[in-house]
Amino acid sequence: MWHVGKVIALSDETATARTINLEVLDWPGHVAGQHVDVRLTAPDGYSAVRSYSIASGAHSEGRVEITVERLPNGEVSPYLTQELAVGDRLELRGPIGGWFVWRSHQTEPIQLIAGGSGIVPLMAMIRSRASAGSAAPFRLLYSVREQEAVFYREELRALTNNDEGVSLTYAYTRVAPKDWPRPPGRIDTTLITNATWPSNIGATCYVCGPTSFVEIASSFLIASGHSPDKIRTERFGPTGDRK
Amino acid sequence: MSSHIYDYLDGNAAAGELAKIFAVDVTAAEGQCAHCGATKRFAEAHLYMQCPGVVARCAVCEQVLLRLVSIRDRALLDLSGMTYLSLDTSQSEQPSK
Q: End of a domain among A96, A124, A146?
């Protein structure tokens, strides 16, 4: 059940988040939105398990990519983001989860809403859409502290060109770029109404972020007429190093 | 704005532990709360992990659906808070892409 992944590349997304690219020879493949459990074991036998969303799309044979945000008092994330080196090995369990997933045979419009590092599994969906050649129309609303905290910025720019069928709206919570149309602040009903699909077209919505963000975003979606049955959520929070 | 402190995750966070027990994915399974009768996906349950094991509570009535404690080579699973759990067994081996 546990696989061994060898670190083949590391890259910093932001000052506090790092993407870890792993080669997992016996990886059974995954679906966008799934996660993996990572187990670290100390020489004295003490072990800690944390759950991280998979960032890489489906169809990435033998490869698993995760992006880890360093939490100040984390037990696992400081190691993964600061000490882990290329060539090191990690134990992985997964892929895990069959509910918060997007499969390439889904053709309906898709609304993605990310709060901070909640972008990770949604990025896997955007990557899977591209690699599958899917024409499903996607919209992404990405709520993030400031520009410097954005993950995958260049790739998102490339994948959300008008021709690609994926549109992207950034919502900054602390610092907005100069001349940005919306002052920095938390998401609100106006933003949800303007930046997401109209509720009558039957979009499936995926919301991922801290629990408080997910509660607020999904309540706004429901208030603007989206059916609760079409909203899938994934929460992470302070109870572990999740994401 | 609400000042409520959210101290739970969701059923997805228990999937790794439950995968040790169930041969198929539990997050997409539909379960009925034995307390209020609500029928929801397990992924939608509120999950509390600040305890020796994990406790899943109904997203509607907040009563306990599931408790799971693992100690060394033994797992104790209490499902008395659910009247049933309906699992999709079509994808028990490989994830479809």
A: A96
Q: Tell me whether residues B7 and A237 touch, CB distance under 8 A.
A: yes
CB–CB of B55/B45 below 8 Å? Answer: no
Full domain range(s) for residue A232: 110-236
For residue B47, being part of any structural domain is answered with yes
**Domains of chain B: total:** 1
Asked if pLDDT for residue B94 goes beyond 70, the answer is no
- Side-chain half-sphere CA neighbours of A35 within 13 A: 32
Q: Which residues in chain A are closer than 8 Å to B51, comparing Cβ atoms? A: none
pLDDT at A240: 44
Residue A103 lies in a domain: no
Minimum-distance CB partner of B9 among A31, A95, A239: A239
Query: Number of residue pairs across A and B with CB atoms under 8 Å?
Result: 95
**Containing structural domain, residue B17:** 9-86
B78 to chain A, any CB pair closer than 8 A? The answer is no
**Residue A30 burial (C-beta neighbours within 10 Å; 0-12, 13-18, 19+):** buried
Q: Residues with Cβ < 8 Å from A237, sequence gap 6 or more?
A: A210, A211, B6, B7, B8, B9
Query: Are A119 and A229 found together in one domain?
Result: yes
pLDDT digits (tens, 9 = 90+) for A127-158: 999 999 999 999 999 999 999 999 999 999 99
The ipTM value here is: 0.83
In a domain, A210, yes or no: yes
> Taking all residues of chain B, what is their mean pLDDT, rounded to a whole number?
87
pLDDT tens sequence across B14-48: 998 898 898 899 999 999 999 999 999 999 999 99
Q: Record the tokens describing residue A201, joined without a space.
A: 């077209």
* Selected residue with higher pLDDT from A161 and A211: A211
A31 to chain B: which residues are within 8 Å by CB? Answer: 95-97
Mutate to test the interface with A, among B3, B5, B9 (most CBs of A within 10 A): B9
A185 touches chain B (CB under 8 A): no
